[in-house]
Each structure stands twice: as structure tokens, then as C-alpha cells.
Amino acid sequence: MLPFKIALRFLKSSLGQTIGIILGIGVGVSVQVFIGSLITGLQASLVDKTIGSSSQITVKMKEDDQYIEDYAEYIAYIETLPNIASVATTLDANSVLFTENKPVIVRGTDLADSDAIYKLSDKLVRGRLPAADYEVVIGESLFAELGYALGDTIDIYNPPTGSGADEHKFVTVVGTFDFQVALTNDTLIVTTIPTVQDILNVGDVVSTVITQLDEVFDSDLDAASIAAFIADDAVEVIDWKTQNESLLSGLNGQTASSLMIQVFVTLSVVLGIASVLAITVLQKSKQVGILKAMGIKDSQASFIFLSQGMILGVFGAITGLLIGLGLLYSFTTFALNADGTPVVPLSIDPGFMALSALIAFSSASLASFIPARKSTKISIIEVIKNG
Amino acid sequence: MADNVIELRHVEKVYGTAVKTQVLFDVNLAFEKESFNSIIGQSGSGKSTLLNIIGTLDRPTSGEVLLNGVKTTDLSKNKLAELRNKTIGFIFQFHYLLPEFTAYENVLMPVRIAGTPITEEIKARADELMALVGLTKVKNNLAVNMSGGQQQRTAIARALMNRPEIILADEPTGNLDSDTTEQVYDLLREINRKFKTTFVIITHDRRIAEKADRIVEVKDGRIALDLRK
Questions:
Q1: b (16+ CB within 10 A) / e for B112-136
Q2: DSSP β-bridge partners for residue B12
Q3: What are the residue boundaries of the structural domains of chain B, listed by start?
Q4: How far is B58 from chain A (nearest CA, A)?
Q5: Per residue in A61-84, is it b (16+ CB within 10 Å) or e — as a string?
Q6: Tell me: domain B4-228, CATH 1.10.443.10, correct?
Q7: φ, ψ for residue A287 (rounded to 5)?
Q8: Contacts of B96 in chain A (CB under 8 A)
């Protein structure tokens, strides 16, 4: 490993220059790590805010007054898809709070399953989730507006559905939630499915099958396979992407620009290393000439400069990761919103960091090919003649 | 006829492609094993070119160079590198040590280039050579932290490290004062006797040249004088 040892000695002998190059690579890597983490974090936060607490693929009847009867069969199929994180069902009834004469939506859902989608337990302000039929949670603002207390019974009235009899159902308020959306907080009442089935006076049916996915960007593929399984024109399968096209194009634009920045940063690092190493070949041409006179082979001489590139790459990558982590840490620690969450949502992904480090190492090694090739052209005679 | 370790047959050297300058004209020359030879000549006479061609640092435009009977003109770059490492030791006017390494590391460098592991025996030899050139005390100094004479003596120790058959020296004392010059020559002579190494030394200094077994004078690219004692 003589070339490696010589490379190390060369780098050590001009320590100031070596540290300068390492810092140069380091800054490049840290920019890459920081920009990458920032964009990934922004996107994740945007996606989470938009669809994190809602259904990503929804199965429902095309006509609003129809219900899904075969939902158990659909769920059984949907659960076999590998990308599905959770499946649940809902049944909605447009009703009226009889005493207050206020229109509301009563949504029945299988809370054990749908909590993974709606995160209702996170949004609970007081009380608890419904544990039995005829127990409900309502929006905190509705609760305050109507002056309810936990344990109060409310009268839900549903217009007659053909039988002619008025339908009054009495439910108990066991908790309140805050979805941070005024309309939802004012009009939504959540309870169990059998409660709503009773309100609507329907059998074992639901109005939607809702899902969340592991890979949200693959929703179109899963939606297509669910539609193919159901194969019923009266049923529609809606995925979030078709409903959020402008968000998607924004995300794609962000990804592309982040990629561009990273490519150009990498390119400037490569060019920087290549030109600095090319200068070190000139600086060390006398030494290379002497080594060649002593019998070092061209391949070994070029390996000196390849080793330099690799050593600089390794130290540059480590420095870059440290600076990058420092930046990320400072941003997530010191730049905070009033509620303590970071102003800039960052996603710290060890895989991405390792990739950035690997790119820096490979580009430094690649860049050193130019000086390595140059070193083979150093003529001993020129070195001797020019002293 | 004695064994020739170096042999040049009809060696010519032309520099340049557009404007051609011929530096050597039909040089035929041989050096015997274990001999101590000097080459003299004025600046620009072609003596350094001759030495570089002998040392395989440069290739002749035409003619043949044989080292130990091996035609070096036919060898690949890698083979030449190996040959230089094992057979030839160079001493240049400007010392040409590696400034990043200590004197001792410089002396060991030809062994490392050969890929030979540094054994206790090799270390002992390096120490012996450092002692021979009187550098034991400064062996761990970086090359740049030594005087000119010390650097040149380090270069001599380095040239001897792989026990080469031939030492080629180009004005080895050109940069040194007269006392040091005397010491270095005495040292080279001693090495020649002790290790039976063949020496070819270029010098300006006639006084020094006269100490050699043979004086070859190069004039305008031709052998003008070949004097044996």
C-alpha cells in the first residue's frame, strides 16, 4: 500500500490545503444533506397535513342515497393488498339536533379501525371515545355553543324515510374533539355504525370503505386493483391523487428542483476536487519524477492521486455529515414555532445521509481520475532538467 | 575482455520534432563491472543526456543500450521501472529527496517501491548505510531540515539501498562546497571498493575526475577522449 502511504504523507505535509479541500467537500455534502432533508421534510409534512388524517382510497356508491352492502367482501380483499396500512368503514346520516333545530352529520364508524385513519383519539379534547352504541363524541365548538355537559342526552331527529313515523334517537355525549376545521367541529357527530344504521333504519350497510396506505404515492395502483376487484359500475373508487392534482404537481416540482440543486452541488464538488487535485499533481510532480526514477510504476503513481481523492472524499463526507447534522440540529432546536414545533419541518433520514456521503466519496474518487491520469504523463527528464 | 555491465551501441539522440537538435552522435561506449568512471564535458555537450539514456530515464532515438546484456530499448515502461529499482541507483545534483519524508524513510523508499517487506534485516542495512554516510544522528529529520551535504549523503545512502550494480551520478557535488565535495567523493570511492558497485559519475571538476579509473570526455555529442588509468 505504498501509494496510499505516500498519498497520506502528501496530504499531511500540506495540511492547510488538505483541510481547505475537506471543508470544501464538507460544505457541498452538508448543503446536499440539508436541502434534501428540508425538501423531504416539507413534502412529508404537506402530505401529512393534506391527507394524513383522511382516507387515501375511498370506496363509495356513485349515488348518494345508496349504501354498500358487500363491504365485508371488499375489506377482505383490500386487506390482502400489501400497501394498505388500515381499512375502516363509515356510515353517514344527515340529521338534525331536534331540540336546537341544527343540521348535523352523524357519522358511524368502526372506531377501533378508523382511529388509525382519523386519529380521533389524538383529537379528543375532553371525555372519551364512544365505547358502546348510542354514545357520541361531538365537536368542541358545537359542545360549547350548545352548552352541553358530558353525559347529556341529545335528541337526534331524522326525517321519516317512507314509514311515516318520526324517528327520534337519543344518544349520550361522552366526549368532544377538535379537528381544527370549523365546519367539521360545528357539524360532525361521531358514533358507532350500528347507531347510525338504527338512525337511518337500514340493515347491515355502510356508505364508504376508507383506507390509508404505507406508500401514499402508489394510491392510483391500489385504487385500480380495488376497482378491478369490485367491478361494479355503481361503485366508485377514489384515490387522493386524482382529487389533489395541484398538490401533486407542486410536490413533483419541489422534488425536481431539490434534485437539480443536489446535482449542481455535486457537480461543483467534483469540479472543485478535480481542479485542486490537478494542482497537487503539479505541486508534487518533482516527487513523482523522483519516485519514477527510483522505479515506481505509472499505475502506482496514479494510485497515489486516486488515494488522495478517496481520502479527501472520506473525510469530506464525514465533515459534511457533521456540518449537515449540526445545521439540522440547530434548525430543529432553535427555530421553533410558538407551540414548540420546528418552523422548518425536517426529515432526518439516515439512508439519505449515507447516500449523500457515498455520492461525495464516489465523486471525489471519480474526480481524482483526472489528476491520476495526468501523473502518468510526468516525465522524469523534465523534472530533473527543471530542478 | 572484462565483463561489461553497461554497453551503448551506436546511440544517437535527437530532440524536437519540428526543429531537430541532435545531441548525441553514434556513441559506442562500454563500462566494466566494478569500475569507477567519470564523464566530463562542457555544458550542453550531451553528457547528462548520455547518463539519462544509460539510466533508462530517456530513450535513444536510435541505437541500443544494454545493461547486464539486457537490451533496455526493447523493454516496456513497467519493466524499465523494475530494472531501475533493482539495478540502478541515481544520485542527482539537486539531491531530489522526497521532502515529505524523513532521511531514513527516503533511504528505505527504494525497498518499499520494490514491494519488499521492511524486515529487521533491511532496517539494519538502512542503519548501516546511514552510518556509512555519517547521518545516524539526523536520520529522523525531514529532508528539508538538513544541510545540502546531508541531503546529498542521504541520496547516496538511498541509491545504495537496493544493492544496485550501477550507480549513476550527475554532478553529485555540483551544489556542495569543496570540503564536502572531497568527503562525498571519498565516500563514493569507498562504496565502490566495499560493495563492488559500478560508478558512472558526471563532473565538471577535473580534479575529481582524475580520481576515477577512467575518464570519458564528451564533446559536441561525441566521445572526444577515453582515458584509462
A1: bbbeeeeeeebeebbeebbebbebe
A2: B62
A3: 4-228
A4: 7
A5: beeeeebbeebeebbeebeebebb
A6: no
A7: -60, -45
A8: 286, 289-290, 293, 384
What's the pLDDT tens digit per position in A153-208? 998 887 766 554 567 889 999 999 998 888 888 999 999 999 998 888 888 999 99
For chain A, the structural domain boundaries read: 2-49+247-385, 67-233
Nine cell digits for residue B27: 556513441
pLDDT of residue B2: 57
pLDDT in tens, A376-385: 888 888 887 7
The answer, yes or no, to whether residue A273 has pLDDT greater than 80, is: no
For residues A324 and A318, give the distance between their C-alpha atoms in angstroms, rounded to a whole number: 10
Prediction pTM value: 0.73
Residue of A nearest to B80 (CA): A295
Cβ(A186)–Cβ(A141) under 8 Å? yes
Pairs of residues, one from chain A and one from chain B, whose beta carbons lie less than 8 Å apart: 66
pLDDT average, residue stretch B114-119: 90
CB contact under 8 A, A295 and B110: yes
Q: Which residue of A has its CA nearest to B99?
A: A287
Q: Is the pLDDT of residue A10 over 70?
A: yes
d(CA B71, CA B59): 12
Subunit contact B170:A384, Cβ cutoff 8 A: yes
